[in-house]
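Intended use. Records like the one below are meant for learning the mapping from a protein sequence to its folded structure. Do not use them to infer anything beyond what is encoded.
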Amino acid sequence: MKAVILAAGKGTRMKDLTQELPKPMLRVHGRPILEHILEGLLAAGIREVCLITGWRAEVIEAHFGDGSRFGAQLCYARQTVQDGTGKAPEYAREFVGDSDFLLTYGDILVKPETYQRMLARWQEGEFGALLTVTEGQDVTQGGLNFFDDQFCLTRLVEKPSPAQLEELRATGWLPAGQPSWYNAGIYLFRTSLFEFTARLQKSPRGEYELTDALSALVAAKQRVAGLKIEGRWVDVRDPEVLATLQA
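Structure written out for the chain above:
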């Protein structure tokens, strides 16, 4: 198993904090967010990692180098065009080779054991992908996911509007009292993912969406396992969230 970390974005919601630093290099308890992620991957036995860099890429590359001082084997790929998360994994295609791989955004913090739980779930069946989810989030800001009785993905609605949510409730997709599963931004994939990212069309907001590739996997009858995040899950999306992590 290898890992790919998407760390190319500027993080415009961080305002002045990311003028000189890419968002994944902002510090939490004295260390960059990326170090916390790498620590968790290493604890799960994943040592080969590719960082997809873009904004202030040299800051990340200078800090981590080849990864040897962390006990990892790191390489880098530059995402020169910021056109969405759907195409970003393709920059790591050569690195991935024939290996299954974990994919995470570079601003998502979870307990280190989360990655180990993902690998254990991966071994439970023949899956084309694995998607992590969490509860209690505003699903209009991310992906809303639906699962069958084996907790495999059946449908994904990206950033549903309030009107769409009402329709989903009215048609029985969102029963009262049932959790709304929010996309937690950490995945496992087989190399078959690249067949689907290659065919992506831009979404209405003008970007290639990774969630569209997931929907295509489901449509192609590939099983996409779900896994609920246990314990901490933080999307370090803005200065207010970052400030709460320093306490």
